[in-house]
Amino acid sequence: MSATPAPHHEGPRLYQELLAVHGIMRRGAALVADSFARLAAGDPVDHKALVAASRWLVEFVHHHHRSEDELLWPVLREQFPAAVADLDRLTTEHEALDAELDALTEATGAIAAVLNGKGGANVVAVVGLAATAANPAAQNVRDILANHLGAEEPVLRTLFPQVPDAQITRLRQAVVDGAPRSGPHLVLGLMALPEPVPGYAEMRANLPAPLRWSTPLLVNRYRALARSLGAAGDPATARQAG
């Protein structure tokens, strides 16, 4: 009688961490889209803060998708041939989202160029660029990303628990090693507010100790950023996580 295979524990934990990353991206995309909508309407928004938040979002989403396409998907394709079609579809969705991220990057760059021009910001030009280019791109990023993550999570919820722990540990380390270091206040603030995202505990346990110790300060910095974007009354900044 053959021995029962040992259960895998790291796969389910990595899935919870993935949910936390997805929560950060969903909230970040909503924050940027809502802020560009306010700016396009002529409401008071800190232009430079919005440019910085938008650039952070693009970098964060790009890194996450590269990690999936280059690190996670090859392992899953090899181990689960029946899931190849699903993984190929998710990669195609990444490519569609990349086109919208590129449009947002171009529009944000145009706004940054106006802000960096001599004689101070031309508010009319900034609002015009937001209305004609940045706002539509940001809305598309938010909507396409939400649909993509909703389709991706059921696939990975089934596959991750079946991957051996040693492979999960190796993959997690590779993802962490390549992760962008910018915007820790955005990562922690979006992860914590208005309540902890699913997978918060697992994600926070993997953070370097200095980041865990600095969480209250970084979350407060995120609150200040959200207020500067006119989002003080939004659900994403309404109350602190317990």
From TrEMBL:
Question: What InterPro entries would the database entry show?
Answer: Hemerythrin-like (IPR012312)
Enumerate the spans annotated as Hemerythrin-like domain: 15-155
Q: Gene3D superfamilies of this UniProt entry?
A: nmb1532 protein domain like (1.20.120.520)
Write down what this protein is called: Hemerythrin domain-containing protein
Q: Which organism is it from?
A: Actinacidiphila cocklensis
